[in-house]
Amino acid sequence: VNVPGIFTARASGGDLLVLEDPQYGGEGNLVTLLRCGRIAANTFTLVDSFTLPFVYGDVEMQDTFIGYLGHSYDYYYPVPVLRAEEEGESVVEPPVREPGYVLGALTLSPEGMFEVKGELNLGQMWSSLLGVRNAQAFITVSGAAVAQCVFGESGPEVLSISPVMGYPGTIRFDAGHAYIPLGYSGVLTLPL
Question: 55, 45, 1, 69: which is closest to 25 by C-alpha?
């Protein structure tokens, strides 16, 4: 089965696949799309697409919650966006985006549609996404701290920032905690 992108995750309890699809835009710029589609009887049917605010970055999914983090460069964004005017005409407006690391989240509806939960510009502080759980994202901050962010109804919020001595490169979860191994420095345990 030919699918438009690289497999990222499968939505739990269904036939929905989430794919990352790097593309060249009309101006020769690079964009990465998240695609969602339904796979059945050896065919793939595209349901929805979402343009990520970066070309290369991290995407993690748990059930229907999708977290993403990457460096956004302003010169990647002459991607046209159509907006309806009052007279019924459409105009093209390029998205306005500050360069820097962007942490964001989406949810996936049962029909396969992406719903934006919010974005947080982290500035030029080097960051990577360790994992997501229970509408929370766990990120490294310059390899020297772990930040726990929640995506609630009012948008993203930083719950905690924990300085660490070892490098936080992986994460594991159980029912109530996140565990981040730090090599010889032990394990950072955070409540979910």
Answer: 55
Task: Using the structure block, give the residue that is written with the tokens 């005017």.
Answer: 85
Q: Which two tokens stand for residue 10?
A: 């499968």
pLDDT at 99: 78
Give the mean model confidence (pLDDT) for residues 163-174: 92
Note the pLDDT tens digit of each residue in 9-49: 888 777 899 999 988 877 777 788 899 999 888 888 999 99
CA distances from 77 to 9, 24, 37, 80 (A): 26, 12, 25, 8
Paired tokens of 71: 């460096």
β-sheet bridge partners, residue 123: 101
Please check whether residue 20 is in contact with residue 6, taking contact to mean a CB–CB distance below 8 angstroms.
yes
d(CA 70, CA 127): 8
Joined tokens for residue 148: 């726990």
Distances (CA, A) of 186 to 137, 156, 165: 21, 29, 9
Place 8 in a pLDDT band, splitting at 50, 70 and 90: confident
